[in-house]
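B., you asked whether I could sanity-check this one before it goes into the benchmark set. Here's the sequence:
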Amino acid sequence: MALLCLVVLSLFALTSWSLRAAESERVEAKPRAVTPRGELAADERNNIDVFKLASASVVHITTLQREGGFFSLDVREVPSGSGTGFVWDKDGDIVTNYHVIRDGEAARVTLADQSTYKAILVGAFPDRDLAVLRIKAPAEKLRPIVLGRSADLQVGQKVYAIGNPFGLDQTLTTGIVSALGREIESVTRRPIRGVIQTDAAINPGNSGGPLLDSSGRLIGVNTMIYSPSGASAGIGFAIPVDEVNRVVPRLIRDGGYLRPSLGISAAPPEFNRALGLPPGVAVIGAVRGGPANKAGVRPFMRDGLGNIVLGDVIVAVNGKTIGSYDQLLEVLESFKVGEAVNLRVWRNRSFVLLSATLKEEM
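And here's what the prediction gave me:
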């Protein structure tokens, strides 16, 4: 028993000595001298400059759902999703992806200074995954993003993405233009062509945010990533700014996108192949009094015996070759309602030129 007590006392003394020694070392220890760093590298300075220039224009969007019981008068708005957007003008117009706000019943926009405002939907164009919200914020708080061009982009060019991935505020990622002219599918399953592919990390929450060039100019709107896991896998896509700059003013002006139309019904591609027709849009119906009907377009029909009577195949609009109905819609979107276009049609194994004045699609 005495031996056990002696061992315990020895251990206690040893522990106390160790603690006193450690405490003594902590008291005597001094911070190490800091080595001054040199100048920032040129690319680091540019990264910082781009972020400072553009981040004030980037906003966080929170979509809301109204929640309340059937017998309750207490209806609350609870967050249901989030994304990114950017300031378009001093009027408070905010550009984002349509898929960011489509499932919400209301939305809030948080500016870079953390002030938050209720937003209303100004207009949307789901076929291009674009939407415009508007907030009532003081003009001095709104810094419109600087616009660039996408027509002259080159593969290998450096790009930056700013957004709010996973709810994290104002995150900057960098990369390059990996490819141009890509095609993705919109929420309406219509193709979006001419899309920019980038390896800049684009994660959930980045949607609707800006893709910038090395001068901090907007060159695209980040819209989606290609990843089985949902996290960035080095393949992201952005809608080119030239397309954005064409669509957004119409959404602001008209509250929606008034798609110009010829007033026709088109046959599927198999129809052309089965009849040995040239590539293009085989017209199988024309709205009476519509643009195509007035221009003299002849649809394919069946006679009294059920035989097909050859009609017109639209092969070009204003000199732009048309290979499918989707391509026809895409070309028509570059015009405005009321504009006249020249139609090159295949008719009876020869080509005819017709003129049609576009109307709003019904």
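One thing to flag: The chain has three domains: 52-141, 158-254, 260-360. Otherwise nothing jumped out at me.
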